[in-house]
Amino acid sequence: MNKIILGLILVNVLTSIKGFDDEAFFNKFKFQVGKILQGEKIRMFTSGFLHADWAHLGFNMYALYLFGGGVAVSFGNINFMCIYLVSLLFGGLYSLYRNKDNYYYSAIGASGAVSGVMFASILLFPNKSYSFIFFPFFSFPAYALGIGYLLYSIYGMKKQIGNIGHSAHLGGAIGGYAITLLLRPNVIQNNPKMLLLLGGIILVFLLFGNKIENL
Q1: Which residue of 5, 128, 188, 209 has the smallest Cβ count within 10 Å?
Q2: What is the pLDDT of residues 53-95, one digit of tens each?
Q3: In this structure, are residues 71 and 115 in contact, taking their beta carbons and an 8 Å threshold?
Q4: Over 76-100, what HEC string results?
Q5: Is the Cβ–Cβ distance between 92 and 31 less than 8 Å?
Q6: Rounded distance between C-alpha atoms, residue 185 and residue 116, angstroms
Q7: What string of DSSP letters covers 33-57?
Q8: Which domains does the chain have, with CATH numbers?
Q9: In what residue span(s) does the Peptidase S54 rhomboid domain sit (predicted)?
């Protein structure tokens, strides 16, 4: 395993374990709109290293392992960390924007950062197929995962499915998409139709998100 990915997994595991047993620690560093608007901007980063339980932690770290290896090798460790942190920030900023009127909205988890890494991987390797431990007999092309993920996140925001921060997922995906194009503009040549389709879905939601959610 790439050292930077291993390091991120270890930090996430250790910080999450601390949060499992220490409510004061958990509450001090989780994403909470009211506290962030009062000046505690650091929560947009620290919340990305906390998780609700072992299942939440395990799913995010498995996704980081699955999609992160190729991205780290392709970009190098410094740029990989840029993608991870920018995606985490975008996830937090977009969550803050979508929930700015709900001072008690809170969230935790690395989903925003992992979403960005996932989209970086999709842009780099759009035709690569992935199989998952939950569906070992099926494989899914990367571009289909990207489209499905965006549509599910948008639907989840509209329907408020579960106790899931779908806005952070979408914000992280947008961050990963944007920073990958900035760092490696030649990825456009990999699959321009797929890239335009993903970009189009993102743009439509950014421009008409409120109207879509109110349908």
Answers
A1: 188
A2: 998 899 889 889 988 999 999 999 999 999 999 999 999 999 8
A3: no
A4: CHHHHHHHHHHHHHHHHHHHHHHCC
A5: yes
A6: 16
A7: HHHHHTT-TTHHHHGGG--SSHHHH
A8: 3-213 (1.20.1540.10)
A9: 39-184
